[in-house]
Amino acid sequence: MSADGLLDGRVAVVMGGGGGMGLASVSGLLAEGASVLLGDFDVEVGQAATDELAETFGDKVIFQQVDVTHTDQIDVAIQRVVDIWGGIDVLVNVVGINISKPIEEITNEDFQKVAETDLRGTFAAIRAVVPVMKERGGGSIVSIGSVHGEVGYGDHHLYTMAKAGINGMTKELAFTYGPDRIRLNVVSPGYITPPHTPEKIAKKLKPEALEEFWREWAPLYPVGDAFTQPLRYACNPEDVANVVVFLASDKSRFVTGDVIHVDGGLIASFFRYAGRPDYVKAAKETQARWDEWYEANKLEEE
Ligand SMILES: NC(=O)c1ccc[n+]([C@@H]2O[C@H](COP(=O)([O-])OP(=O)(O)OC[C@H]3O[C@@H](n4cnc5c(N)ncnc54)[C@H](O)[C@@H]3O)[C@@H](O)[C@H]2O)c1
After folding, report:
1. Total-model pTM
2. Which superfamily is assigned to 11-192+235-267 in CATH?
3. Ligand 1 contact via 50 beta carbon (within 6 Å)
4. What mean pLDDT comes out for the span 223-247?
């Protein structure tokens, strides 16, 4: 990401900042000049990421342990940022979990866990930050949704419910708080290459196969699904973060209440299975080639 100072002097909070898209967003916001609180419930991951970023960005990045299912912890984090930096211009909600099961196996506890994490966690962070942004004269709130908020996949019932809810609350809140110059948008990813997965896979492969893996297969991971996106690869967390930074900045000052897809055209190709048998054929062939290659190149103990 090129650094143009798009966010010089701005203050941002990223909930779930220790993971793939969260950390990429924190890095992108810092690179554009913002001060950032990285919130995450995983202290080890969050603190290590913050320490590494602090080597470049100094005290412009701080860590706070936040479990978004405990809304009081969100309030504490928001207040801490106000106390340190005097206000908040940008909130990025990244936390999201999926429990995928047939409906008759979904327990009330499952329902509660996904609803409290994905839906109420996002809502509570927005609730905490809106008065701060009103006081500041405006702000930008970006929530990470999913294509599953709009189309079915199979057994993603709770996830779809939550992500559709995030789209809905974003539109309603954008309507209500537009006059306060608070913009709210959703970034809706398709299949993203998880940052750690290729490394984990690489650990499973023979050393002589690693170079070919990174060159040929990593951009396609997860192979079958990624290949059904019209661009025919899975994108990186940084591709999502680039759009988060755009939405956080004044470059998007007339964009609000929107759901922006970073999905390689997935949503645009609704009938990809039924209408485009070549996609299915290509995806199946690629999957078969991967299966064969992996079998030949995996480490014996795996
Ligand atoms: N990975 C994909 O292909 C994909 C596709 C579409 C949408 N998404 C959505 O993108 C978002 C980020 O996905 P990712 O793959 O970067 O996730 P990730 O698992 O890499 O990161 C999530 C981060 O959130 C933290 N976290 C989890 N529960 C938390 C809680 N209760 N409180 C605070 N922190 C918590 C984790 O510790 C982790 O650091 C999620 O909302 C996910 O639903 C992911």
Report:
1. 0.91
2. NAD(P)-binding Rossmann-like Domain (3.40.50.720)
3. no
4. 83
